[in-house]
Design brief:
913 residues; Isoleucyl-tRNA Synthetase, domain 2; Isoleucyl-tRNA Synthetase, Domain 1; 7-stranded mixed β-sheet; globular; RNA-binding
RNA sequence: GCGAGGGUAGCCAAGCCGGGAAACGGCGGCGGACUCAAGAUCCGCUCCUGUAGAGGUCCGAGGGUUCAAAUCCCUUCCCUCGCACCA
């Protein structure tokens, strides 16, 4: 416990146990459509860090808020429990990944419970348990049945010394020597520093590209997602609309430069190029192939120079466009012209078709290449119909325009030309290409879901039958390479099809497979015959509010969307998007820097909880900034939050002990009643504002409101003997507004107040106030107080005897109302035409002129009665501050010369020394 | 280069969508109350000028729209993030 604080540890333990006993976070299976609030489940490292605390405080606070609002809430938690770190830890510690992971999970669950996160632990999901990963395997089968699984060669990082595949994260070094254009980066195995090589292995893929179009298109519908994430997904999917155009490639017409080795077949047939600028095809002056294009590879086999280039010179990472002429010719399908064919490293096999035609006049990169190779530049697009073809010798003209020097197409706009050319060219067609690749899920690791496949010499790869799932992991063996490969007994099996001896697939699945559907498993975590209960999922999904780090903006969120769509198509899910609203929470930093172990600037949540308690940690984190913004951890801020909770506790306890703060001097009924009215209004205002802010997840502003309310209550009590009913209501409301964020201490104080039942299950206070009116009242009070201060300051009144606040006469309010509604040119005339105004003579004329002058800036104010009432109720604030008698007078009760300066929203003030 | 999000008083941070108050709140600093004192708590002040609520300047910079701009539009600079030899 902290000095000067409260015994947070006792309070927090006590209520955690009480809530647990009462199962307050349990979501029964029979609710129809709970509000589904979800934080991205963590990798169980064993230690919760501040990022977790922030993430899960956000979901917890929102879940608690919705629950108090009367919603059924689903707020589960689970563990992304497979993955490399466990395997490495097990190797280092000579244990096994399972025991290590289970231990970490237990530690982290304890830490979460200590934070007071309210989860339905009966729905806990742990991906490394067979009862979970069985469904990964089952889904793999279903994907295969839907023709969404493919096995093909893929390049992987390979360490020849460890004889294993390395994940990208396990490849280190990577610093390419400056100035080097060959060889690329030096990549080393993280374990043994052996240079990593690339190797082609047969890998399993999920065909996410089948859904590229829908994944891309539906981003527009994700209105509840941040733009940044949507944009990142768009970039990742990377749609390009263009045309595919076939070029005849051959070693025709003596174009060979003699480098060719032999005279074998020189026909390469049609090679498709992809372009988004078909309008520039008349300006094509070369044709280029990616180094790993099939044609390039064929050439490399027979041509030493090409071989040399492909194997050693090509540097796709470098800035320089490098290439080598092949001696081949590609025939421009429009002009019949022969173009020299290059193999060039700036052509990427994964973009388009891995082949392109170059138009130096209209593409910067082609221009650079042409310059280097001494190729022609032929401009064929002019900026507009009247312009000449641009001079593209120096720089390419890359805008659309009007096509020139293009035969029958000349004169068309770029867009028209593209359309016409696509129609006309034989074999050409519109095509949309995506950057998105199929998802390779094979991992040569132990600690993952075994891919449910058996390799049979006769039948090839065969899916393990559904009845034999799960394929469980064998005991862990601490070996070099993949432990599954070493598990001979496990590996050897029989073919499900023909019964012959066969071997199990030893690859496991990418852990992103696990996380692509875990949110569905929470719906029916125990279900034994399906991954999820479809009917219930249709009621409960989509996740209403998903919260997690921006680092998952692409992979996890994209894979999850993909799974959801596949399951919608094949398993009867109704919703095609899993996450309705997404919040990408910001980072908790220290002095502007990301907390990290290597920097040694990590603030441990456990230490904070110990010193200040979970409530303080949660309150500080939530009030520091909007949830999506980064913010700095601040010891000062933590102390301030702690001091606030301590004050709150003292305030409630004093009141509950029967001390209502009697001050005989001010206990007279009138002041007390007015003050109570003020406090009453502030309570309702706080509810109105905070509710709206909680709804918007802007906890920081909601909490400000709650803190202000507590401040008001304390000032009230300090000033006078409080109206117990009003004061208690204020405390109860403050506790409710704070309960989602600081649940333990609020629950404790709820009990101190003698309330029945749990605060966690209490009803959220009704919104009775109109926020706009409440804010207008606050403005009036604040402005009036400021005016009093300013007058006494400027006039040098140190110790005022009496302050008169004179409320504006009704007729001025009426005049303002008329002015706001009037569209007459002569406002003065209109106002003075009204008898009830005009009879106030000169004062009326003056005010009318003022209104006319400021006409455009006039704003609605509180009605006269409300103004008077508000000021009377707030009079105590002035009295308290200036220690002077305060009278709130109606205009007719005050001297004429004072009252006349009053205006709606701005009472006259007279200070007597 | 393309895209997204930011730049608000000493610091952090509201306000910007739906234009109208030198611009909420917190921290730090200053003054005061309470106290023997410190801490805690409470009341103010914290852009400049001003002996009755005023005037001036101000929200990265520069333009514009408007009776009126931190807020809308354009240009520009800086920061953060994502994508990028993408055909």
């Amino acid at each position: 416990m902290h000095d000067d604080g409260y015994d947070h540890t006792t309070v927090e333990r006590r209520w955690q146990a009480a809530w647990d006993d009462a199962s307050v976070y349990r979501t029964p299976d029979d609710v129809s459509d709970p509000t589904y609030v979800l934080g991205m489940y963590p990798y169980p490292s064993g230690e919760m860090h501040m990022g977790h605390v922030r993430n899960y405080t956000i979901t917890d606070a929102y879940a608690r808020f919705r629950r108090m609002c009367g919603d059924d809430v689903l707020h589960p938690m689970g563990w992304d429990a497979f993955g490399l770190p466990a395997e490495n830890a097990a190797k280092e510690r000579d244990t096994n990944p399972r025991d290590w992971t289970v231990d970490c999970i237990d530690r982290m669950r304890d830490q979460m419970e200590a934070m007071g996160f309210g989860y339905d632990w009966k729905r806990e999901v742990t991906t490394c348990r067979p009862r979970y990963y069985k469904w990964n395997q089952w889904l793999f089968r279903r994907f295969a049945e839907a023709d969404l699984v493919e096995r093909r060669d893929a390049e992987v990082n390979w360490c020849p010394s460890c004889e294993t595949v390395l994940a990208d994260e396990q490849v280190e070094g990577g610093e390419s020597p400056e100035g080097s254009h060959e060889g690329g980066a030096v990549e080393l195995c993280w374990r043994c520093d052996t240079p990593v090589t690339e190797r082609e292995l047969e890998q399993w893929f999920l065909k996410i590209t089948e859904y590229a179009d829908e994944l891309r298109g539906d981003i527009d519908e994700l209105a509840g997602w941040p733009d940044s994430v949507r944009q990142m997904q768009r970039n990742w999917i990377g749609r390009q609309e263009g045309s595919r155009v076939p070029f005849e490639v051959s070693a025709a017409s003596g174009a060979s430069d003699g480098r060719g080795e032999g005279a074998e077949s020189r026909e390469f047939g049609e090679v498709d190029a992809f372009t988004t600028r078909l309008d520039t095809i008349h300006g094509a002056t070369f044709f280029a192939l990616a180094p790993d294009h099939p044609v390039s590879e064929r050439l490399a086999e027979e041509n030493d120079a090409v071989h040399e280039f492909v194997r050693h010179e090509a540097d796709p990472e470098g800035d320089e466009p490098n290439g080598i002429e092949t001696g081949l010719t590609a025939t421009n399908p429009v002009t019949g012209e022969g173009l020299p064919v290059f193999v060039a490293d700036f052509v990427l096999s994964e973009v388009g078709t891995g082949a392109l035609y170059g138009v130096p006049a209209h593409d910067d990169r082609d221009h650079a290449f042409a310059e280097k190779m001494g190729l022609d530049v032929e401009p064929v697009v002019a900026p507009d119909a009247d312009a000449d073809a641009p001079d593209a010798e120096e720089t390419a003209y890359t805008e659309d325009g009007v096509v020139v020097n293009s035969g029958e197409y000349s004169g068309l706009t770029s867009a028209e030309a593209r359309e016409r050319l696509t129609e006309t060219i034989d074999g050409a067609d519109v095509e949309t290409v995506y950057r998105l690749r199929d998802w390779g899920i094979s991992r040569q690791r132990y600690w993952g879901t075994p891919i449910p496949v058996v390799h049979c010499d006769d039948c090839g790869p065969v899916l393990v039958p559904e009845a034999e799932l799960p394929v469980e992991l064998p005991e862990f063996k601490n070996v070099t390479g993949n432990p599954l490969d070493a598990a001979e007994e496990w590996k050897s099996t029989t073919c499900p099809d023909c019964g012959a001896d066969a071997e199990r697939e030893t690859d496991t699945m990418d852990t992103f497979v696990d996380s692509s559907w875990y949110f569905l498993r929470y719906v029916s975590p125990e279900l034994a015959d399906a991954p999820f209960d479809v009917d219930r999922a249709n009621g409960w999904m989509p996740v209403d509010q998903y919260v997690g780090g921006i680092e998952h903006a692409v992979m996890h969120l994209l894979y999850s969307r993909f799974f959801q769509k596949v399951l919608a198509d094949h398993e009867g899910l109704q919703h095609r998007e899993p996450f309705e609203n997404l919040l990408a929470q910001g980072m908790v930093q220290l002095e502007g820097e990301k907390m990290s172990k290597s920097k040694g600037n990590v603030v441990s949540p456990q230490a904070i909880v110990e010193e200040y308690g979970a409530d303080t940690a949660r309150l500080f984190i939530m009030q520091a900034a909007q949830p999506e913004r980064d913010f700095d951890w601040s010891e000062e801020g933590v102390r301030s939050a702690y001091a606030f909770l301590t004050r709150l506790k003292a305030t409630v306890e004093t009141f509950a002990a029967g001390d209502v703060g009697a001050d005989p001097r001010r206990a007279d009924g009138d002041v007390a009643a007015g003050t109570a009215a003020y406090v009453d209004g502030e309570i309702d205002a706080a509810v109105a504002v905070a509710t709206e802010e909680y709804d918007d997840l802007t906890f920081n502003t909601a909490l400000r409101e709650a803190r202000d309310l507590v401040g008001t209550l304390r000032a009230y009590r300090e000033y006078t003997a409080v109206d117990p009913a009003v004061f208690e209501r204020g405390l109860a409301v403050a506790l409710k507004l704070l309960a989602p964020v600081a649940p333990h201490v609020c629950e404790e104080l709820w009990e101190t107040l003698g309330r029945e039942g749990f605060l966690v299950e209490a009803d959220w206070p009704d919104v009775t106030a109109d926020r706009e009116t409440a804010e207008r009242r606050r403005l009036l009070v604040e402005n009036t107080r400021e005016d009093v201060r300013e007058i006494s300051d400027v006039a040098g009144i140190d110790d005022p005897e009496r302050v008169d606040v004179v409320v504006t006469p009704d007729w001025k309010h009426e005049a303002l109302r008329v002015a706001l509604e009037s569209d007459a040119d002569n406002l003065v005339g209109e106002l003075m035409g009204r008898e009830d105004i005009q009879r106030h003579g000169e004062a009326a004329a003056d005010y009318a002129k003022d209104l006319q002058a400021e006409r455009e800036a006039l704003r609605k104010t509180l009605p006269p009665a409300a103004e008077h009432e508000t000021l009377r109720a707030a009079a105590w604030l002035i009295e308290r501050e200036f220690d002077a008698e305060v009278r709130v007078l109606r205009a007719e009760e005050a001297p004429e010369d004072v009252a006349t300066t009053a205006e709606p929203g701005r009472p006259a003030i007279d200070i007597q020394e």
